[in-house]
Design goal:
The protein has 6 helices and 10 strands. By secondary structure, it is an alpha/beta fold. The chain starts with 5 loop residues before the first strand and ends with a helix.
Length: about 230
Amino acid sequence: MNLHPHLKVCGLTKTEQIQELIGMKADFLGFIFYEKSPRYVLNHLGLQDIANIEHSGKTGVFVNEKIDQIVEIAEKAHLNYIQLHGDENQDFTIELRKKLSPEIKIIKVIRIGHDAAENRNKIQQIINSPLSTLNYLLFDTDSKAFGGTGKQFDWIVLNAFEIPLPYFLSGGISEENIENIKFLHQKPFALDINSKFEIEPGNKDINRIKRFQSILHKKESQRDKLL
């Protein structure tokens, strides 16, 4: 029984590490197309390099990018998922959905700050607003850098929301805090790891990712024994 969440490794820049992750059966490979990010993929790989990667979970991460640019990159890099990590609103996602190839799925990020409990109604409205155009949500720690901070938000606040779509959990996930997922009423569809599993920005610690993956599979095995 497959109870453990899927695994997304984001901020990839090195071909050999990407191939190792494919061998490890990582479910999603994240490529950041945000020039201000220290993990900006086009400083390391071309669109054709990404297109040549044989994987069904290639995810392009965009921050307040123009719709036509997203569509062009998605087509040239053969992306499977688009992750909107900026301030994109409902009108933006509706227009993107119209122009994007129908088989490409959209993930919308909702950034959670320290005042999430007080802004519960506002966040719930954001969660509900663009449902018809989205396939997944992603909850990440709010920051001016739009992610990649390695900082964790209080996951328990998610229990206050109705989450109508499968969601990715991001923001400072590590071996030390993964156990806290058990306190979430609605479990994440996938875990999105990045800066906690790096030697430096864009250079992943593959051995640490392997250890993390083994922890996830071990928890699945333990649950199977209880069922």
